Amino acid sequence: MKPTCGKGPLHGTPPATLAELDDALVDCHACPRLVAWREQVAREKRAAFRDEEYWGRPVPGFGPADASLLIVGLAPAAHGGNRTGRMFTGDRSGDVLYAALYDAGLASQPTATHIGDGLELFGTRITSPVHCAPPANRPTVVERDTCRHWLEQELDLLSPTLRSVVVLGGFGWQALLPVLSAAGWTIPVPRPKFGHGAHVLLAATEAREHPLHLFGCYHVSQQNTFTGRLTKEMVTEVLRDAARAASLPLPG
């Protein structure tokens, strides 16, 4: 039996716009473990947020529909995106990422607290291979693969303008490469390995008119940032490199 995803692409015509894709995505109930967890977290809440209404649904991508730079994470945080309804918003990982995006000239402000806080991304969109918060921040391979069609269609809709991708962490790297290959970009052989600062140019094909720059960056998890393995400056440097590859304007 195929998983059910509400009014999503598994049922009929694929969405024609990112707005349609996002509307379909938030109704997805395809992964029972993730549905149960995201809703449990939304009911029980963290004490610091007990007076807030949690989003408790799949979290769509964030950023303009004509983005030339895409950032690919892992999955929403239980009390971050699963609470606020926006990628990397309201948690420590987002504190680092959005501060780096601001320093790179890709965000209107260095903080992200809630939808409606005035945050705007410039030429940049943020998404993830898994759109529901997973227990212990660890989606299963089956959950990753079940969620894959959302990423495939997001990439297809972005492809006319997309020139550069930054992948945060090895999970996203492994999830994205086969999706890029299926979408028509050429993946080098042997398959490129993830690493911080890795840069791979995926050649254009008949299916994809423009080449795509792929960059690796350690994930902005607390484990990485609290230990000093990853700093805001390191993230900013990768973002600037990716922005240049995407021909986005950088601050002087």
From TrEMBL:
Residues 60-239 form the Uracil-DNA glycosylase-like domain. The keyword DNA damage applies. Pfam families: UDG. Gene3D superfamilies: Uracil-DNA glycosylase-like domain (3.40.470.10). One of its GO terms (molecular function) is metal ion binding. The keyword Repeat does not apply. Keywords: 4Fe-4S, DNA damage, DNA repair, Hydrolase, Iron, Iron-sulfur, Metal-binding. GO terms for biological process: base-excision repair. SUPFAM superfamilies: Uracil-DNA glycosylase-like. PANTHER family: TYPE-5 URACIL-DNA GLYCOSYLASE. Belongs to the uracil-DNA glycosylase (UDG) superfamily. Type 5 (UDGb) family. This is Type-5 uracil-DNA glycosylase. It comes from Rhodococcus pyridinivorans.
